[in-house]
């Protein structure tokens, strides 16, 4: 499989996972009375409407470059899209409403991962060449959705898990936790993507978030595959 096809088989599933994740937020908000995302054209499966310069272009680009440089292939791809606009004041209970909207993104990813696993089960009856191509595509789609859904459940605003925490915590503590949103994405980038590889250069193995996510991702992959009756590996 040449490099261009390998790259497309990594980028397309990741773009779909990110786009549908954000669209799910918008539809959840719409269902509860907020049509902001709809009016701004964000209830769309067109990835171009959801591009974020850092999360959709810079970070995935760096991950692709580093993987091609070190392994010659793209094994893992991650990123995020421009957040869907939500007017929480339109909800009957803004704090709990935002919690539901936040949960909709990861929930959509987990459903999509299952659908991808179900589709993967079917391709093995196809001719060998095309079966191999689509098996890789669907497997990458499953991984992209599981990784995106699980990562976003980290309880740090503005990640979905952080907003879910704000909805669950007592009011006073919730407002304090919500203040992390100003620096939350910076904390995530530094402690998850920058600090671990930097420390590794000095012989220090410190990547608690990455290690935990890898363990949970592996377990989630096994569960989804078994539920769909698909093979564990491709």
Question: What does the model show?
Answer:
This protein has 234 residues and is mainly α. It has one domain (3-228). The chain is 68% helix and 0% strand. It contains 9 helices and no strands. Helix 4 crosses helix 6 (160-168). The longest helix has 30 residues, at 94-123. The two termini are 15 Å apart.
List the helices and strands and how they pair.
Layout: H1 3-31, H2 36-39, H3 53-70, H4 94-123, H5 128-151, H6 160-168, H7 171-178, H8 184-200, H9 208-228
Measured distance between first and last alpha carbons: 15 Å
Question: What composes the largest sheet?
Answer: none
Low-confidence stretches: none
This entry's quaternary arrangement is single chain
Q: What is Rg?
A: 18 Å
Instruction: Output mean pLDDT.
Output: 86
Instruction: Please tell me the total number of domains.
Output: 1
Provide the β-strand percentage band. under 5%
Please bin the fraction of helical residues: 55-70%
Count of helices? Answer: 9
SSE order, as H and E?
HHHHHHHHH
Structural class: mainly alpha
What does the overall shape look like? globular
Question: How many E-type strands?
Answer: 0
